[in-house]
């Protein structure tokens, strides 16, 4: 797409992001508030006994279960990667890990009532499609044997797919297992950007998978894109978006690249001077917002977009969107159990995290223990703030009067600290307050995690 064509996408005078400084002031990093308290707040003050008690307590919650399975293996070395992963070509290396996962399932599931429905299942990584088809079947069967998986039409069973590791046979296999949602990692379709991040992924690979997924009737297909990558320009991102929109995925995510080479070794393959400037990034976002809106996508919040007929957009319109450890969901909130290295759980009044190190994770299980490493017991204040954050991020508004009624207190007075911290965002036009109601503006949708941070009493 030429610069002129990009300018045509955003008619003069309608720009949403008038000042790149707003993005700098409010948008740099920070938690995405898929839970509150966040993973950064967890301490070592929680034991295996706390987790087993929480699992037992959660049976009385009346909530369905959401299971997350972390597959840490990956055969690639993308320069932008910020994930904890084990890079290997050898799928046999996953075998001992799959046995440990099964041991963890046995230890956790014995505290959960078998009748509880597993309405959500998510496999993330690393790259879950690193596994062979037989390993995937084995893992799925073990999950079914331990927890009793659902075959309800309304279940949300999703898996992250790397198009370089998957073909039409993979998709057919995933569907036969019971997955009904796919999330495809694409990042950018421009070969120059792909080269700069060491991720060569011809467009045809993605197109073939999307065609097959549509043909097989996967309920919802999500594509993951990124902005702020080396070599990316407003024009190149517009071209990628044009092609992606033509593929008609039901959901899209457009996440910002955060350059932290001091923390993530693989990012040392990217030079800071290859990255787009803050002004260029603002232009990219402006273009993306405009193109996606014109194509009929609803901006759900932050990096998430969905077609108007997708369940996420419908749930948001009805005020029934929820947000959990795996992001936005159209289903009712669940008790969340994470399995695998670094996996997070949240149920029965506590939040926990497994060890980030594969060795520590395996050692705990080999000694016959649930591998909880960090955690936190939630206080009443945590619950109130978590509810405020979830409603703000899902509804793009917050009714302090209703929140106060639910928690039987004066929410405006109790959250005075948060409302004070929101003042700069109000001045920058991200949020408006009218009496007892906060209303997030269209620009605020992009930065809603920053607004959520104002409610975070634990932020350092
Ligand atoms: S971004 Fe995904 S595919 Fe690339 S190295 Fe990281 S885990 Fe592997």
TrEMBL record:
Catalysed reactions listed for this entry: coproporphyrinogen III + 2 S-adenosyl-L-methionine = protoporphyrinogen IX + 2 5'-deoxyadenosine + 2 L-methionine + 2 CO2
Cross-referenced CDD domains: Radical_SAM
SMART domains assigned to the protein according to its UniProt record, in alphabetical order: Elp3 (SM00729)
Keyword terms of this UniProt record: 4Fe-4S, Cytoplasm, Iron, Iron-sulfur, Metal-binding, Oxidoreductase, Porphyrin biosynthesis, S-adenosyl-L-methionine
Cofactor note: Binds 1 [4Fe-4S] cluster. The cluster is coordinated with 3 cysteines and an exchangeable S-adenosyl-L-methionine.
Domain Radical SAM core, first and last residues per copy: 59-285
Keyword Oxidoreductase: yes
Binding site for [4Fe-4S] cluster: 74, 78, 81
Residues where S-adenosyl-L-methionine 2 binds: 126-127, 199
Subunit text: Monomer.
Name of the protein in its database record: Coproporphyrinogen-III oxidase
Native source species: Halomonas fontilapidosi
């Amino acid at each position: 797409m030429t610069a002129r064509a990009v300018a045509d996408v955003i008619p003069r005078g309608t720009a949403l992001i008038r000042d790149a400084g707003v993005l700098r002031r409010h948008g740099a990093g920070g938690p995405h508030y898929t839970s509150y308290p966040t993973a950064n707040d967890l301490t070592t003050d929680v034991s295996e006994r706390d987790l087993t008690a929480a699992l037992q307590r959660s049976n009385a919650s009346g909530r369905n279960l959401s299971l997350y399975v972390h597959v840490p293996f990956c055969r690639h070395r993308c320069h932008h990667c910020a994930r904890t992963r084990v890079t290997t070509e050898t799928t046999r290396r996953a075998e001992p890990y799959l046995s440990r996962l099964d041991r963890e399932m046995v230890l956790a599931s014995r505290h959960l009532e078998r009748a509880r429905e597993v309405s959500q299942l998510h496999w993330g990584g690393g790259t879950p499609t690193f596994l062979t088809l037989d390993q995937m079947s084995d893992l799925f069967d073990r999950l079914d044997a331990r927890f009793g998986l659902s075959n309800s039409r309304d279940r949300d069973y999703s898996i992250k797919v790397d198009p370089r590791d998957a073909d039409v046979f993979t998709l057919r296999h995933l569907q036969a297992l019971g997955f009904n949602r796919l999330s495809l990692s694409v990042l950018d379709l421009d070969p120059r950007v792909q080269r700069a991040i060491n991720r060569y992924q011809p467009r045809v690979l993605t197109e073939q998978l999307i065609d097959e997924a549509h043909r097989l009737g996967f309920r919802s297909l999500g594509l993951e894109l990124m902005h702020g990558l080396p070599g990316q320009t407003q024009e190149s991102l517009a071209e990628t978006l044009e092609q992606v929109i033509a593929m008609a995925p039901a959901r899209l995510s457009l996440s910002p690249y955060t350059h932290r080479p001091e923390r993530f070794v693989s990012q040392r393959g990217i030079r800071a001077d290859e990255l787009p400037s803050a002004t260029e990034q603002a232009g990219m976002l402006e273009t993306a917002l405009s193109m996606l809106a014109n194509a009929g996508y609803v901006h759900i919040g932050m990096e998430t977009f969905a077609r108007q007929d997708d369940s996420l957009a419908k749930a948001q319109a009805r005020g029934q969107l929820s947000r959990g450890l795996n992001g936005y969901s159209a289903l009712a909130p669940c008790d969340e159990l994470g399995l695998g290295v670094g996996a997070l759980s949240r149920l029965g009044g506590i939040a926990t995290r497994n060890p980030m190190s594969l060795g520590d994770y395996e050692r705990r299980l080999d000694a016959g223990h649930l591998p909880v490493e960090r955690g936190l017991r939630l206080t009443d204040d945590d619950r109130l703030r978590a509810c405020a954050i979830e409603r703000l991020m899902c509804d793009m508004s917050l009714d302090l009067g209703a929140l106060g009624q639910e928690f039987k207190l004066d929410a405006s007075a109790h959250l005075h600290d948060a409302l004070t911290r929101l003042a700069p965002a109000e001045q920058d036009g991200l949020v408006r307050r009218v009496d007892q109601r906060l209303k997030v503006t269209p620009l605020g949708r992009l930065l809603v995690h920053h607004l959520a941070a104002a409610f975070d009493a634990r932020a350092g």
